[in-house]
Specification:
Layout (H helix, E strand, L loop, with lengths): L6 E7 L2 E9 L4 H26 L7 H6 L10 H16 L15 H13 L3 H4 L4 E8 L2 E6 L7 E7 L2 E11 L2 E7 L8 E2 L4 E2 L4 E7 L2 H14 L5 H4 L5 E6 L2 E6 L2 E7 L16 E3 L1
Antiparallel strand pairs: 1-2, 2-3, 3-4, 4-7, 5-6, 5-14, 7-10, 8-9, 10-11, 11-12, 12-13
C-alpha cells in the first residue's frame, strides 16, 4: 500500500465525476509531483475532448451532427468511426442485447465512457515508471480502470454496493490491474432499456463485471443487468474475468464463464423496502 495519500484530482466530465489518482511513497512524491500533475491534467483533458466529440447533449458535437444528418461518418472526428466500429462488434457479440442504434440513430453512450477512460488511462503509463510510484486509477462515476506499477505490490480494494442499502457492501474485489464496471437501476431507476423489446428493465437489478479494460467491463455489465439474474448465457462466453449479478435479494457469480455460486439472500427483501436505494462503489 502507499505510504502517503494519493495525489487526487476530481473533475466533472461526461455527466459524472471523474477521479484520477496516483499513489506513491513519501520519499519520492515531491520529486515527481510535477510530472504526476501533468499526467493527471492530460487524462482529464483527453476525457473532456472526448466529451466534446461524443456528447449527445451538445448540438455541435460530432455525434449530434451525425445524428442530425449534418455530417457523414467520413466527415466527423476519426474517433467516432473507431467507436462506431466497436459498437457494431458489441452488437454482434451480445446478440443485440447491446445496441447503440436502438433509438433509430447512433448513440454510443453505452460504450464511450469506458472507451474514453481506457484511452485516457494510457497517459498514466509513463507515470507508473517514475521512481516511487506504485499505482494509478481513473474512476468515472464508480466505473474504474486500475493500474499498478511494475514490481509494485499495491492492490486496489473495490467495494460493490448493496443495491438495497446505500451504506452496505455486497462484495469486495481485490484487483491489481484491470477494470471494474457496474450497471443497474438502484441509483437512476428504470433507465436501462432492453434494445430487443425497447422496454425498460423492470425492478431493482445490479451487475458488476471485472475485465481487462473498462470498455469491455462497461458493456458487459450492461448486458448482464439487461439479461437479468435468471439468464447468464449471454455473459458466459464474454471476454471478462468475473462478474456478479444481484436482483430481488438473490446473487449469482461467475468467473471464466463458469458459475461459482448461486444462492438466495437470507435477508427478506421486503424488510428493506423503505430504505433509500442507491448504488455506491468504493475504492481504497
Amino acid at each position: 500500500m502507499s505510504a502517503v495519500p494519493a495525489v487526487t484530482v476530481v473533475e466533472p466530465v461526461m455527466g459524472t465525476m471523474v477521479t484520477v489518482q496516483v499513489r506513491g511513497s513519501a520519499t519520492t512524491a515531491a520529486a515527481v509531483r510535477p510530472r504526476i500533475d501533468a499526467a493527471i491534467a492530460a487524462v482529464v483533458a483527453r476525457m473532456q475532448d472526448d466529451e466534446r466529440v461524443f456528447s449527445t447533449y451538445r448540438p455541435d458535437s460530432d455525434v449530434s451532427l451525425l445524428r442530425d444528418g449534418l455530417r457523414g461518418l467520413d466527415d466527423v472526428d476519426p474517433r467516432v468511426r473507431e467507436v462506431e466500429a466497436l459498437c457494431r462488434r458489441f452488437r454482434d457479440d451480445t446478440a443485440g442485447v447491446f445496441d447503440a442504434w436502438w433509438r433509430g440513430w447512433f448513440d454510443p453512450t453505452g460504450v464511450v465512457k469506458g472507451w474514453s477512460v481506457d484511452a485516457a488511462s494510457a497517459l498514466l503509463l509513463d507515470v507508473l515508471a517514475l521512481p516511487g510510484v506504485e499505482a494509478a486509477a481513473v474512476n468515472a462515476g464508480g466505473d474504474m480502470r486500475l493500474l499498478r506499477a511494475p514490481g509494485s505490490a499495491h492492490v486496489w480494494n473495490v467495494g460493490v454496493a448493496d443495491p438495497e442499502d446505500a451504506a452496505g457492501v455486497l462484495s469486495t474485489i481485490a484487483l491489481a490491474d484491470g477494470a471494474v464496471a457496474t450497471s443497474g437501476t438502484a441509483e437512476r431507476g428504470a433507465h436501462l432499456i432492453d434494445p430487443r423489446s425497447v422496454r425498460p428493465v423492470p425492478g431493482l437489478v445490479s451487475a458488476t463485471v471485472v475485465a481487462d479494460t473498462l470498455t469491455v467491463a462497461d458493456v458487459w455489465a450492461t448486458v448482464a443487468a439487461v439479461s437479468g439474474i435468471d439468464d447468464l448465457d449471454a455473459v458466459r462466453s464474454a471476454p471478462v474475468t468475473s462478474g456478479i449479478v444481484w436482483a430481488d435479494g438473490r446473487v449469482r457469480r461467475w468467473a471464466g464463464g463458469i458459475e461459482i455460486a448461486r444462492f438466495e439472500s437470507l435477508v427478506d427483501p421486503s424488510a428493506r423496502a423503505g430504505e433509500t436505494q442507491q448504488e455506491h462503489r468504493s475504492l481504497r
